[in-house]
Design a protein that fits this description.
heterodimer, A: 83 residues, mainly alpha, Non-ribosomal Peptide Synthetase Peptidyl Carrier Protein, Chain A, 5 helices, 0% strand, B: 428 residues, alpha/beta, Peroxisomal Thiolase, Chain A, domain 1, 2 domains, eleven-stranded mixed β-sheet, two-stranded antiparallel sheet, 16 helices, 19% strand, globular
């Protein structure tokens, strides 16, 4: 799976929780979930669960703590998928 | 009458989500026409309930989306919070207020919104996951949907309220108690306005315990609309209901300053408990305490018993209905032809449990405003014990138009708790 494919799969998972639509339109690897997309920090666990279901992986508490932006999320998912 | 307009409390907005009507216009029509909201529920049958009928408000998804964002509805499974928020927002808008997500908090307005339990369906989902060792997969909203104050947390945020925000809980007295608590907070000068009300979930996990107690009727699964029969000789237990009622209470001063439309005045009331003594128990009321509650409500409202034109009773359709009527006759010192007109909204919506008091207070105020008495459905055979106390004409079968100035509303709940409130027609 390429980075572009990964980001394409990730976007619809994040979308329901986004409070800043403009920032979402310009989503890039550097986009921060809370600071840029204004996701309620309580919802980060919901994004994690949706990612687990979509990619059929399990994310540990340590993974979760690091998944604060698109880039770190993509890296952790890639490691879990072995790509 | 109290002259200080800071101490007088009026109702300036109402909202309702009832089994026989969602929204004030539809609910008013249902009360006038005697429309029942009781239906058969296959799920109750599948789960071997004795009583397979109940009252559930009709809320299509499109309607829910007008009040909740898609994000709020994601993983949402708490019908009581859904009903409460819709009734609460409607009441707020009805009172002439808007909601602005960017506003300062309204420190002059508080919220007392009662509940019996919250989000039982969500709680069930969570328990299955938990017992499966999947606590990490519960998601972020289990606490918010299942905490008893979930309704006040959701609703106050939607409206931006900044005064006291809380949830009261006193079984089937909850809704009426919330109104009197809000009334007190305005009278004490701690708030200008209080959004008050109560809500109750629907479904087997709320109603099952009552079915197990054999206090719900099992005789009307084939004719649901005939099931809820308060005061009837053939009453055989209550029919469970659900929903929410909400009222904006406001000091008369505040209402006058903003030129608000006033539905009615809250004259006062009383809240007490029977101590589970003198015939009272966890499930039965102490009649002396009930009478005391009604008498004190009249006294606090500065109303003479003869001024009460109508009563909206608790009257659930169990064996206690005759005792309740007896308590009213004793507390008011009025019997037979002299007894006020009396009705039970439960004949049309069932017993909405924690939501009963607020839905029935909304019904009481609508009857004052529209000057009618809603029919007692299914009471063509008034109970003999009640006939000995009051004349049959006091229990109308059809809606009747009548001048009513004062209506008394009482609610009684498990734990031997009582509340009685008096509303007066308001003419500006």
């Amino acid at each position: 799976m390429t980075k572009e494919q990964l980001i394409t799969k990730l976007k619809p998972l994040i979308e329901p929780y986004v409070q800043d639509e403009e920032a979402f339109k310009n989503l890039s690897e550097d986009t921060d979930f809370v600071k840029d997309l204004k996701v309620n920090s309580a919802n980060l666990v919901d994004i994690i669960l949706d990612i687990e279901d979509e990619f059929d992986i399990r994310l540990e508490n340590e993974d979760m703590e690091q998944m604060l932006d698109v880039k770190s999320a993509m890296e952790i998912i890639a490691v879990k998928l072995g790509i | 009458m109290e002259n200080n307009i800071n101490k007088r409390v009026v109702v300036t907005g109402m909202g309702v989500v009832a089994p026989n009507g969602v929204g004030i216009p539809e609910f008013t029509k249902a009360l006038q026409n005697g429309t029942s909201g009781i239906t058969f529920h296959q799920k109750l049958k599948d789960l071997n309930f004795s009583c397979q009928i109940g009252g559930v408000p009709n809320l299509p998804h499109e309607l829910q989306s007008q009040y909740f964002t898609d994000l709020q509805l994601r993983g949402f499974n708490s019908s009581g919070i859904l009903y409460g928020c819709i009734a609460g927002i409607d009441a707020w808008k009805d009172a002439g207020f808007e909601t602005d997500p960017d506003s300062e908090p309204d420190y002059n307005t508080g919220l007392i919104f009662g509940a019996g339990t919250s989000g039982v369906e969500k709680f069930r989902e969570a328990i299955y996951k938990l017992d499966g060792g999947e606590v990490r997969r519960l998601g972020s909203t289990v606490v918010l949907q299942t905490m008893t104050s979930g309704i006040s947390a959701y609703l106050s945020g939607m409206l931006g309220l900044g005064n006291q925000v809380t949830t009261n809980s006193s079984a089937c007295t909850t809704g009426t108690e919330a109104i009197l608590m809000g009334y007190d907070r305005i009278r004490s000068g701690n708030a200008k306005r209080m959004l008050v009300g109560s809500c109750s979930d629907h479904g087997p996990y709320v109603w099952g315990g009552f079915d197990a107690m054999r206090v719900m009727t099992y005789k009307h699964n084939d004719d649901p609309e005939k099931g809820s029969r308060p005061m009837s000789a053939s009453a055989s237990g209550f029919v469970p209901g659900s929903g929410a009622g909400a009222l904006v209470l406001e000091s008369l001063k505040s209402a006058m300053e903003r030129g608000a439309t006033v539905y009615a005045e809250v004259l006062g009331g009383d809240i007490n408990a029977g101590g589970q003594r003198q015939g009272g128990s966890l499930t039965a009321p102490n009649p002396i305490a009930v009478q005391r509650c009604i008498k004190n409500a009249l006294k606090n409202s500065k109303i003479n018993p003869n001024e009460v034109d109508a009563i909206n009773g608790h009257l659930t359709a169990t064996s206690k209905d005759a005792l309740e009527i007896e308590n009213w006759t004793r507390a008011l010192g009025r019997k037979h032809q002299d007894f006020p007109l009396v009705n039970s909204t439960k004949s049309l919506v069932g017993h909405c449990l924690a939501a009963a008091g607020s839905i029935e207070c909304v019904a009481s105020i609508l009857q004052l405003q529209e000057q009618f008495i809603a029919p007692n459905a299914n009471c063509e055979d008034l109970h003999e014990d009640i006939k000995k106390l009051i004349d049959v004409s006091r229990v109308p079968q059809q809606a009747i138009n009548r001048d009513i100035e004062v209506i008394a509303k009482a609610s009684f709940g498990f734990g031997d708790v009582n509340a009685c409130v008096l509303f007066k027609r308001f003419i500006a």
